[in-house]
Protein backbone atom coordinates (compact mmCIF):
# COMPACT_ATOMS: atom_id res chain seq x y z
CA UNK A 1 0.00 0.00 0.00
CA UNK A 2 1.53 3.33 -1.01
CA UNK A 3 1.28 6.49 1.04
CA UNK A 4 -0.52 9.12 -1.03
CA UNK A 5 -0.60 11.76 1.71
CA UNK A 6 1.18 14.97 0.83
CA UNK A 7 3.69 16.53 3.22
CA UNK A 8 2.73 19.63 5.19
CA UNK A 9 4.88 22.76 4.90
CA UNK A 10 5.01 25.36 7.64
CA UNK A 11 6.78 28.65 7.01
CA UNK A 12 6.78 32.10 8.42
CA UNK A 13 8.52 35.13 9.85
CA UNK A 14 9.25 36.12 13.44
CA UNK A 15 10.32 39.68 14.24
CA UNK A 16 12.14 39.82 17.59
CA UNK A 17 12.18 42.86 19.80
CA UNK A 18 15.67 44.37 19.42
CA UNK A 19 16.58 43.63 23.04
CA UNK A 20 15.70 39.93 22.54
CA UNK A 21 17.20 39.38 19.07
CA UNK A 22 20.25 37.47 20.35
CA UNK A 23 18.15 35.30 22.65
CA UNK A 24 15.61 34.50 19.92
CA UNK A 25 18.47 33.61 17.55
CA UNK A 26 20.00 31.33 20.19
CA UNK A 27 16.69 29.60 20.98
CA UNK A 28 15.66 29.13 17.36
CA UNK A 29 19.11 27.84 16.44
CA UNK A 30 18.96 25.35 19.32
CA UNK A 31 15.80 23.83 17.78
CA UNK A 32 17.36 23.01 14.39
CA UNK A 33 19.29 19.78 14.93
CA UNK A 34 16.92 18.17 17.48
CA UNK A 35 13.95 18.90 15.22
CA UNK A 36 15.71 17.39 12.21
CA UNK A 37 16.02 14.15 14.20
CA UNK A 38 12.31 13.93 15.03
CA UNK A 39 10.20 11.26 13.32
CA UNK A 40 8.30 12.77 10.42
CA UNK A 41 10.52 15.82 9.93
CA UNK A 42 11.59 16.09 6.30
CA UNK A 43 13.14 19.57 6.37
CA UNK A 44 13.80 22.23 8.97
CA UNK A 45 15.58 25.44 8.02
CA UNK A 46 16.18 28.70 9.87
CA UNK A 47 17.16 31.89 8.07
CA UNK A 48 17.91 35.39 9.31
CA UNK A 49 16.65 38.11 7.01
CA UNK A 50 18.64 41.33 6.58
CA UNK A 51 15.88 43.30 8.33
CA UNK A 52 16.29 41.24 11.52
CA UNK A 53 13.36 38.88 11.01
CA UNK A 54 13.83 35.14 11.30
CA UNK A 55 12.33 32.91 8.64
CA UNK A 56 11.47 29.29 9.38
CA UNK A 57 10.77 26.69 6.72
CA UNK A 58 9.65 23.25 7.84
CA UNK A 59 8.30 20.22 5.99
CA UNK A 60 6.57 17.43 7.89
CA UNK A 61 5.41 14.04 6.68
CA UNK A 62 1.99 14.65 8.24
CA UNK A 63 -0.02 16.97 10.46
CA UNK A 64 0.28 14.38 13.23
CA UNK A 65 4.09 14.61 13.08
CA UNK A 66 3.93 18.40 13.31
CA UNK A 67 1.45 18.20 16.19
CA UNK A 68 3.80 15.84 18.05
CA UNK A 69 6.70 18.25 17.44
CA UNK A 70 4.62 21.09 18.90
CA UNK A 71 4.37 19.23 22.22
CA UNK A 72 8.14 19.39 22.82
CA UNK A 73 8.70 21.14 26.18
CA UNK A 74 11.38 23.56 24.94
CA UNK A 75 9.25 24.63 21.98
CA UNK A 76 6.14 25.00 24.14
CA UNK A 77 8.05 27.17 26.64
CA UNK A 78 9.21 29.46 23.83
CA UNK A 79 5.75 29.63 22.23
CA UNK A 80 4.09 30.48 25.55
CA UNK A 81 6.35 33.54 25.84
CA UNK A 82 6.24 34.82 22.26
CA UNK A 83 4.75 38.16 23.26
CA UNK A 84 7.79 38.76 25.46
CA UNK A 85 10.25 38.08 22.62
CA UNK A 86 8.49 39.36 19.51
CA UNK A 87 7.37 42.79 18.32
CA UNK A 88 4.29 41.31 16.66
CA UNK A 89 2.50 38.01 16.21
CA UNK A 90 4.40 35.59 13.96
CA UNK A 91 3.42 35.54 10.31
CA UNK A 92 2.81 31.81 9.78
CA UNK A 93 1.48 29.72 6.91
CA UNK A 94 0.57 26.02 6.66
CA UNK A 95 0.18 24.46 3.24
CA UNK A 96 -0.08 21.01 1.74
CA UNK A 97 2.65 20.48 -0.83
CA UNK A 98 1.31 20.02 -4.35
CA UNK A 99 4.63 19.00 -5.85
CA UNK A 100 5.85 15.51 -4.98
CA UNK A 101 8.39 15.37 -2.19
CA UNK A 102 11.54 13.49 -3.16
CA UNK A 103 14.15 12.50 -0.63
CA UNK A 104 17.52 14.09 -1.35
CA UNK A 105 19.91 11.85 -3.21
CA UNK A 106 23.46 11.42 -1.90
CA UNK A 107 26.05 13.82 -3.27
CA UNK A 108 28.53 11.93 -5.46
CA UNK A 109 32.06 11.71 -4.05
TrEMBL record:
Keywords: Monooxygenase, Oxidoreductase. SUPFAM superfamilies: Dimeric alpha+beta barrel (SSF54909). The keyword Oxidoreductase applies. This is Antibiotic biosynthesis monooxygenase. GO terms for molecular function: monooxygenase activity. Residues 8-94 form the ABM domain. PROSITE patterns: ABM. It comes from Embleya hyalina.
Amino acid sequence: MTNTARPLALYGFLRPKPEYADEVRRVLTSFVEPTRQEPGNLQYHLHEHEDGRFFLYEVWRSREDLDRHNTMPSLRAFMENLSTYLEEAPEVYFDTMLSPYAEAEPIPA
